[in-house]
Specification:
Belongs to the glycosyl hydrolase 3 family. Its EC number is 3.2.1.52. It comes from Parabacteroides chinchillae. Keywords: Glycosidase, Hydrolase, Signal. With 993 residues, this protein is α/β, with parallel strands linked by helices. The chain folds into three domains: 20-383, TIM Barrel, CATH 3.20.20; 400-564, Glycoside hydrolase family 3 C-terminal domain (Rossmann fold, 3-Layer(aba) Sandwich); 586-695 and 738-992, 3-Layer(aba) Sandwich (Beta-lactamase). The protein is built from 33 helices and 35 strands. The strands form nine sheets. The protein has an eight-stranded parallel sheet. It has a six-stranded mixed sheet with strand order 9-14-13-12-10-11, sandwiched between helices. Strands 15-17-16-35-34-33 form a six-stranded mixed sheet, with helices on both faces. Strand 31 and strand 32 form a beta hairpin. The radius of gyration is 36 Å and the shape is elongated. The chain starts with a helix and ends with a helix. 52% of the residues are buried.
């Protein structure tokens, strides 16, 4: 029985070794039609043209006369069969390609040396990761998608062949030429990745070419400069270097590139490269493995292909069994040498013609029988599609690898309790990594470069001593680990992020061993840096596995998974949204800007915990030069009610400081004895308390004897020269009571209203008296009132024994990393970061920048229940995500799930309002503040200055719009008349549906 099994195994092995492996591209083609075309072309070709098909020359994608003349000479004199373009830009390459194809009698193969896509050779194209980064990705379906996208882009450029994948197994740490070009050190993993990539390429009709057969991974020399040697046994080669190529061939792919490598176990002819070895190419690859696809030499101009002076490398390559001669150093001389070798009988004419026929067949297979010129118009846009942008981002996100995570320090927690700094070694301050870190929290940024002085470096480390967490990013292999860094790792919570070849971590072994966490980003690219930063803060979870071993530190396959705990940042396609439809937002905003509805704005959309659209538009002022940027801070106006006051109310409710049916007079004792004392808290939140909409507290500070007549007028005249709103003009010749208003801060006058404008600290008593004596309307009827929230703020402060702004900072914003979200922003940030609102020539007589626009809030010192909060879209999104997450953010609970559900889901039985939130009106577009597409579950708020946010729990979506439409005047109502905010929300729903 054993003998039978043994014999069967031998038979299977023999069949597998000698089977003729016809590539799938060839197997699937209609051979009758193919042969008709091939025969017709071949029969019309001259002897020289048939030889020329075997040559693929290098051409610069330049349209200058000299370059075109050189290319035309190759086409006309040696009848080349293909072109490999060098570095350039896609539009010029397309134009040169079109000229070449038009000039050639037989369609040309156009090839790409694009291991990581077009960007390896062409600028202005999508930058995909290199192979080692891809080797960290667990999901090989993504690698196939990547291959498909590279193929799509190739076809847009008229390219039929991509010299990829590189399936060299990089087992040599010192390899000078492969490194990041390899998928890793595990032969089967390399094979899996290479096959996945090739599957994507050839599935779209582009020939894949695996390289560098029989394996360049364990070399210490560069074949561009010399002939590297691989001194491994046959058994080792079979199990490591050759394994990916064998599996590639067995899986039916069409191209193999032979490398300039001396491999004595396969052919011990002294100094003979594998690319010129009959034993290796014909004996092993073609005969033993049965490969019937196209064999390409590596570039014959490389030093590794150098032969004896008496031998021509192109002739030697053809004798060895190669089909296509890639990039010979002297194409015209080599063409003559091949002709001469045929004439002398060294080369068989029949074999040369057989190679020509094979090449023509693959030209048919790749569609060159129906060649059409590359469409140049719109090429760049087609190449850089939203799908390509998503795929590049997705590959980077999936590859980021965490090798160490002591005490689960990642993702970072308790942001409000720790000071964080970022140190870039070999990178600039404010690089993409540090910029992304600062989207999550306030992170102080430092850098050390190769040319930094000792004094400068010492100063940096001295300053870092004041921080609790140091996030150290390494962007270069040219700066060694320092003693100061080792000492820092021993004293602080150090988190490493390496944007280098993983092997370089061994040079930082001492400090890496002491670090709390270690993240590998593989490449020093913007996307790698951005997603590594997201892993550190929990915007995405880490999923990558190390594809190579780091000597003395980590083995191949190491990788710690981490959780997503905060908002992440990704392309729209990641969440199933249509990026093209989201572009409609840009058009709507552009209309608003052109019609002067607002000087500038921010728009943010987040879905399923990912920010998928975040753009800033316009300028701070219509006549200004300062552009709005992502960290520009806006006055939220009434959106403060839900993003600020309501958070504090919910916190107090969680702590059982009141019930919804509690009477407001029980918490604001000044209301005792008034008709306001028994108003239920619930009615204030629903805006059905009967309280007056607003009170102009500033009137109490104006000396009524300082002017005659009315303060307001419905027409402009000499007494009322200043426009207040669309229907009102005001006078500005009045004076304030000197015992209530001061132009400088002094004892008794510490409440700042605006620049050089202080109100008496006693004025707060005037405010509560005004509220107490104000008219009270019908309880239960919806009347939107700022007074409701002014009283709620007073209630919270009395119950929580803490000023509301301090409570919100300590209990929410600091922990959320929302450090741009604050009252009185001038106390914590530069004026230039704050977008101005109105040029108020009435009450405060100045341009308001950093001072709250709402007068009621201003006369309370900038902190009020109805207004006063400033923020940017990114920070505001964190607060909204807290609501969506039912009180949890960053892995920490801020509010109970029950309280969040109560406040976000409740709705008044008599109007559209929720408990502090605004809501859509179903079936009444005119009355609703939202798009008609919004579900009934949506909640949010708008603001007078031109702001809004809406949270959609059904679609797990956040929409934020921030603008300063009141600059320079609140009389500008174009934001509403153009319906900008609602139209943008419409566009968002179209994009996600």
């Amino acid at each position: 029985m054993r003998k039978v099994i043994y014999t069967a195994c031998l038979c299977w092995f023999a069949i597998s070794c000698f089977a003729q492996a016809e590539p799938d591209l060839m197997a699937k083609v209609d051979k009758v039609k193919m042969n008709q075309w091939v025969d017709s072309v071949f029969d019309a070709m001259s002897y020289e043209e048939r030889i020329g098909q075997l040559f693929m020359v290098v051409v610069d994608p330049k349209s200058d006369a000299r370059n075109i003349q050189k290319m035309m000479r190759y086409i006309n004199e040696i009848h080349i069969g293909g072109i490999l373009f060098q570095k350039g830009n896609p539009v010029t390459q397309a134009e040169v390609c079109n000229r070449a194809q038009k000039a050639s009698r037989v369609p040309l193969f156009i090839s790409l040396d694009g291991e990581w896509g077009l960007s390896m050779r062409l600028n202005g194209t999508t930058r995909f990761p290199k192979n080692m980064m891809l080797g960290a990705i667990e999901d090989n379906n993504l690698i196939t998608e990547y291959g498909k996208e590279v193929a799509r882009q190739c076809k847009e450029l008229g390219i039929q062949i991509n010299f990829a994948p590189d399936v060299d197994v990089n087992s040599n740490v010192e390899n000078p030429v492969i490194g990041l070009r390899s998928f890793g050190e595990d032969p089967n993993a390399v094979a899996d990745k290479g096959i996945a990539y090739a599957k994507g390429l050839e599935g779209m009709g582009v020939i894949s070419v695996s390289k560098h057969f029989p394996g360049h991974g364990d070399t210490s020399d560069d074949s561009h400069k010399t002939l590297p040697s691989v001194f491994h046994s046959q058994a080792r080669l079979d199990s490591v270097e050759l394994l990916p190529f064998k599996r590639y061939v067995d899986n039916g792919f069409a191209g193999v590139m032979t490398g300039h490598l001396y491999v004595p176990s396969l052919d011990n002819t002294p100094n003979l490269p594998a690319s010129l070895s009959y034993k290796i190419i014909t004996g092993l690859l073609k005969d033993k493995w049965g490969f019937k696809g196209l064999c390409f030499t590596d570039a014959l101009a490389m030093k590794g292909a150098t032969t004896k002076k008496a031998d021509n490398p192109s002739v030697k390559a053809l004798l060895a069994g190669n089909d296509i001669l890639l990039a010979p150093a002297t194409p015209i001389n080599d063409f003559s040498a091949v002709k001469e070798a045929i004439d002398e009988g060294i080369l068989s004419l029949e074999e040369v013609e057989a190679k020509c026929l094979k090449i023509l067949r693959y030209k048919y297979i790749t569609g060159l029988n129906q060649y059409s010129p590359v469409k140049v118009q719109g090429l760049s846009k087609r190449l850089n599609s939203p799908h390509a942008a998503w795929l590049a981002a997705k590959l980077n996100a999936e590859a980021i690898t965490v090798l160490k995570n002591e005490s689960d320090v990642l993702p970072l927690k308790q942001l409000g309790k720790k000071k964080i700094a970022a140190l870039a070694i070999g990178g600039e301050v404010g690089n993409e990594f540090q910029a992304m870190l600062n989207r999550y929290d306030t992170v102080a940024c430092f850098s050390i470069g190769r040319n930094s002085t000792a004094a400068y470096i010492q100063n940096v480390y001295n300053r870092l001593a004041g921080y609790d967490i140091i996030i150290c990013s390494v962007h270069t292999v040219r700066i060694p680990e320092s003693l100061a860094l080792r000492q820092l790792a021993a004293k602080k919570e150090l988190i490493y992020a390496f944007f280098t070849l993983p092997y370089f971590c061994k040079d930082y072994k001492n400090s890496a061993t002491k670090a709390k966490a270690l993240v590998i980003g593989y490449e020093n690219t913007p996307l790698a840096q951005e997603y590594a930063a997201q892993v550190i803060f929990g915007g995405i979870g880490a999923k990558g596995k190390l594809p190579v071993s780091i000597p003395g530190l980590y083995y191949s396959g190491t990788g710690i998974f981490t959780e997503k705990t905060r908002l992440g940042y990704h392309e729209p396609e990641e969440m199933g949204a249509d990026a093209g439809r989201l572009d409609e937002i840009d058009l709507i905003v552009s209309e608003g800007l052109s019609k002067k509805a607002f000087p500038g704005c921010q728009v943010l959309v987040a879905k399923d915990g990912m920010v998928i659209y975040d753009k800033s538009f316009g300028r701070y002022e219509f006549s200004g030069t300062q552009d709005v940027v992502d960290n520009s801070v806006y006055d939220l106006a009434s959106a403060s009610k839900a993003a600020g006051t309501l958070l504090a109310v919910m916190k107090a409710y969680d702590e059982k400081k009141f019930t919804l049916n509690s009477k407001i007079g029980d918490f604001v004792p000044e209301l005792k004895g008034s008709n306001k004392q028994n108003l239920p808290v619930k009615d204030l939140l629903y805006h059905q308390s009967g309280l007056t909409p607003s009170i102009n507290f500033y009137l109490d500070a104006i000396d009524r004897n300082s002017y005659k007549g009315s303060l307001y007028s419905n027409t402009k005249n000499t007494s009322h020269p200043v426009r207040f709103d669309s229907n009102t003009y005001v006078r500005n010749d009045f004076r304030y009571y000197p015992d209530l208003v001061s132009d400088k801060k002094k004892p008794g006058f510490t409440t700042e209203v605006a620049r050089n404008f202080y109100i008496s600290d006693s004025f707060k008593d005037t405010i509560i008296q005004d509220i107490k004596s104000s008219r009270l309307g019908t309880r239960g009827k919806y009347v939107y009132s700022c007074i409701n929230f002014i009283l709620l703020k007073m209630m919270v402060e009395n119950q929580m024994k803490k000023p509301m702004d301090r409570l919100l900072h300590d209990d929410f914003y600091a922990g959320l990393g929302a450090w741009h979200t604050t009252y009185n922003p001038l106390r914590v940030m530069d004026t230039l970061q704050i977008v101005p609102t109105e040029d108020d020539q009435f009450v405060r007589r100045q341009l308001l920048r950093g001072y709250v626009h709402d007068e009621a809030a201003a006369f309370q010192g900038g902190v009020s229940g109805n207004a006063g909060l400033f923020s940017n879209a990114n920070d505001l999104a964190k607060v909204m995500q807290l609501f969506l997450n039912q009180g949890v953010y960053g892995g920490e609970r801020y509010l109970s799930e029950e309280t969040c559900r109560l406040f976000t889901q409740s709705k008044s039985p008599t109007c559209r309002r929720g408990l502090g939130f605004d809501k859509p009106v179903v079936g009444n577009v005119k009355a609703s503040p939202c798009s008609p597409q919004t579900p009934v579950s949506v909640y949010g708020h708008t603001g007078f200055t031109g702001t809004c946010f809406w949270v959609d729990p059904d679609n797990q979506m956040i929409y934020i719009f921030l603008s300063n439409r009141v600059n320079p005047s609140r009389a500008n109502n174009k934001l509403s008349s153009l319906d900008i905010r609602t139209r943008i929300q419409d566009a968002i729903y179209k994009a996600i549906k």
